[in-house]
UniProtKB/TrEMBL annotation:
Residues 258-330, 382-440 form the PAS domain. Pfam families: HATPase_c, HisKA, PAS_3, PAS_9, Response_reg. SUPFAM superfamilies: ATPase domain of HSP90 chaperone/DNA topoisomerase II/histidine kinase (SSF55874), CheY-like (SSF52172), Homodimeric domain of signal transducing histidine kinase (SSF47384), PYP-like sensor domain (PAS domain) (SSF55785). One of its GO terms (cellular component) is membrane. Residues 333-385, 453-507 form the PAC domain. This is histidine kinase. It comes from Candidatus Desulfatibia profunda. Residues 520-743 form the Histidine kinase domain. PANTHER family: SENSOR HISTIDINE KINASE, TWO-COMPONENT SENSOR PPRA.
Amino acid sequence: MDEKSSRADRPFPLMYFKRRSISRNLTISLSLVVFLVMGTILTFVYSKQSRQMRQEIENKADECVCMIAELLSLPMWNFDRKNIEQVCSVFAQNELIGKIRIVDAHGQPLFDFNKGDNQDPIVKRARSIEYQGRVIGNAEVMFTLGDYNKKLLLLLTSSVVTLGGSIIAIIVSTGFFLGLFLRKPLTVLQRSMDLVAQGDYSYGFEKIRQMELAGIAKRFSQMAENIQTRETALQNINTELQDEIGERQRAEKALRQSEEKYRFLVMNLPGIVYRGFKDWSVEFIDEKIELLTGYPMEEFNSKGVKWSDLIVAQDIEIVKEKFIHAIKTDRSYIREYRIRTNSGNILWIRDRGQIVRDESGEIEYVSGVFFDITDRMQADQERIRLATAVEQAAESVIISDRPGTIQYVNPAFERLSGFRREEIVGHNFRILKSDRHDEIFYKKMWGIISRGDVWQGHIVNTMKDGTLREFETTISPVLDSSGVIVNFVSVNRDVTQVVALEAQLRHVQKMQVVGTLAGGIAHDFNNLLQAIQGYAELLLLGKERDESGQRELQEIFKATQRGAELTQQLLTFGRKIESKRRPLDLNKRIREVKNLLERTIPKMIKIELYLAENLNFVDADPVQMEQILMNLALNAKDAMPDGGELVIETENVILDQEYCKTHLGAVPGKFVLLSISDTGEGMDKETLEHIFEPFFTTKEVGKGTGLGLAMIYGIVKNHEGFIMCYSEPGEGTTFKIYLPVIASSEAASETKAPAGEIKGGCETILLVDDEKTIRDIGKQILETYGYTVLTAADGETALELYRKEQERIELVLLDLIMPGMGGRKCLEELLKLNSRAKIVIITGYSMNGPAKEVLKSGPKGLINKPYDMGQMLEKVRKVLDEKL
């Protein structure tokens, strides 16, 4: 058989490979294998993706037609064609929908939408439309497959490009590496063979290091050496042996160096390298494991200590779940969990590893690195606790950068300031500045914290709504590791209510001091009035009605009466006079006062009453309640010269602990609230601070004494109530008076004895008063009506005189307030001398005031200063006539 016929009988692939080199045959073979494998995979992926996309469109078509049928059920039943069209128009906007057709039960179309230019294949779905089980129409939807085909084309294109790119990469890389690892050593071998053929036996084959060609080169060298003379054969063999020994030594040295390098790398890695198996046993682990866990490396390798033995019980299940997930997904894993060391300590571990499989797909081993993250986890937990504490703190916390730009605020700041966090972050601290502090204050504060020192102090900030709040503030700088200020932390305790209560307390204390002072002034003033009034009455006794000087004396007497009323107001403010209180219907009293006010104040001022029904009764002095209403109404009249509105309101209120915390003087309980408001000029803050002080007035000279509101303040306090005033310039004024409620509603009746004829006598009376004018006036009046009068300037003299003249003295008139031995002490000593002695107290206080306790100790009566002649003579006669 000739050569041509033998070639014709060979299979085509064999002919093809015979005409090619090894490198080309290998490249083509690899390319065919890659083409077949990747082509099969890509074909499978393309087919599966195509089916999934087709199925997805069919599912969407089913969902769409079902949804249309459900949505159109009620509109078709109601023949609501407009609603039908609206619903279908919404679905028609879907790019996948090519046609929507809705017909009724008789086949009449109600809506027909068709994209006429659509030539793509379609998916058609139809469904009957039912209402309460009755078929009322039919819905038909067609989905186009244009988008589906575009995606398939894109998938096919990318698959072809991927396949082509892979084949090209195989061809190029195979040609390159074959040239590097096969052609080059073969060329060297061929050149060596040429030299041997030329008779040159000195050429060596050390340059060929590939294992497959090294044997051929070695045998070829041996063959060349055998050709040499037998004399050189032994020498050549010996040389080869020496070369082989040297090569082995070099290899062993390289191996030792490689091992040392590997060990150095492992020892200097930040973590602990390990290699183990899926049953948690350890094949290899870094020596540093002993420093971390207290277990030597040998215990893991030889004694069978498994890594799972160290994991704490609470974490073992989570770690196993992550390991199983890594096996299923064939991905690397990262796990953070706790282990228990040999000493019992708990450490946090970050485990990062990879599962390695063998050729059959089974897990061969697991390798990875452990990292000790205990410090980081503890720092994270500490940071979380700190952040939680700041978030839940009652104090306002602000964190800014060094220039003062706010970076963080806590919820307490948001609650107090009204700013939301996103509104305030990014702004400078200046957004909170108020006009309570000047620039020097802020510069000084900034200078302290800029030096790295802590600033503490009182600061007033402006809130979002413009109101001001007062804070006790501490601003601390935050330093980085190099000592440079990077942040400022401001902790602010809201003391607005505390400051307000302190101001109220100072005001109350001031009013108490002023009240005490007013009481003392009233006592001395009473003595002066008593002298003036007494002498005026004595002069009037000797004057006829039309006689010269009668009118002037009457005016003096009237002036002393007005002065007496003034001292009563002072004593009322100082709470030196108790009220004549009884259960009172405040609404009834207000209606009575309204009738009086309508005849008193100008008609251009409108009076409005808003009185609560079923208003509780209060224990109050009716006259003093009228004084309150009249005084406040007249003040309101002066504040409304051009007219306005005066509103009087009552209501039942209950004050709780929260209200009382912010209103000094208030106590929890039931109260009647009396409010008097006007639409007048109002008052500024400075005026409000002084309105209840005696003799303070904003009226012109001669138009007010400044005692009206002071008297009201005293009356309210005397009734165990409290009063608040709210006013702003131009906004009017409101007074709110809180009076405690009583259970009883019984009315008290008042009777006043008619004045009787003044009678004198012949008894001896001891008059005790530290004021000489009072003694002289009293003596002259009493002697005018037939009495014998002995006088004493103090308690000691009175006692001495009483001891001497006890048999003669039938009555003692005793001033309560005197220097030295006071009236009360003198009273006690007189009663010790004679327990049946008739003693009458003379004082500027009422019998229900401070004199009330004195009256319980034995005196027979009380005369109020300044007294007129008739009152004193009537009380003297009454006591003298009493039988013991």
